[in-house]
């Protein structure tokens, strides 16, 4: 039996992918929900360095976070992005994407 958390993530995935016919369309649906709901910018730590997540972007087969520190920019796959505590509003959509991706 699925846990309540897993059931909630499955329901979010269903909402995001209701009209999707393949993995690319499902990815686009999940990206749209993350883009629409994730409160950016927010600060997180990547490899011990504070960065600002400015926005998310869809790059072919993955969703990436556009991170900045000063004048430097870095794209980090959302699957690998460490979230701060407490997480930003809308971070549950990142959890849904990670669940969909099997992580």
Description:
It comes from Virgisporangium aurantiacum. It holds the Pfam family Calci_bind_CcbP. This is Calcium binding. This protein is an alpha+beta fold and 103 residues long. It has one domain (4-100). It is 37% helix and 29% strand. The chain has a four-stranded antiparallel sheet with strand order 1-2-3-4. It is globular. It starts with a helix and ends with a helix. The model has no long low-confidence stretch (mean pLDDT 95).
What is the fold's blueprint, element by element?
Elements: H1 4-17, H2 23-37, E1 42-46, E2 49-59, E3 62-69, E4 72-77, H3 92-100
Antiparallel strand pairs: 1-2, 2-3, 3-4
Protein name: Calcium binding
Distance between the termini: 19 Å
Strand order of the largest sheet: 1-2-3-4
SSE succession: HHEEEEH
Q: What count of helical segments does DSSP give?
A: 3
Spans of 5+ residues with little confidence (pLDDT < 50)? none
Q: Percent range for helical residues? A: 25-40%
Strand content: 25-35%
């Amino acid at each position: 039996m699925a846990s309540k958390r897993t059931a909630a993530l499955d329901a979010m995935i269903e909402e995001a992918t209701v009209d999707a016919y393949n993995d690319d369309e499902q990815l686009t649906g999940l990206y749209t929900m993350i883009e629409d709901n994730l409160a950016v910018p927010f600060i997180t730590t990547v490899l011990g360095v504070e960065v600002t997540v400015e926005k998310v972007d869809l790059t072919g087969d993955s969703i990436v976070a556009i991170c900045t520190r000063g004048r430097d920019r870095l794209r980090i796959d959302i699957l690998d992005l460490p979230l701060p505590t407490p997480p930003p509003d809308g971070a549950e959509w990142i959890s849904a994407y990670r669940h969909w991706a099997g992580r």
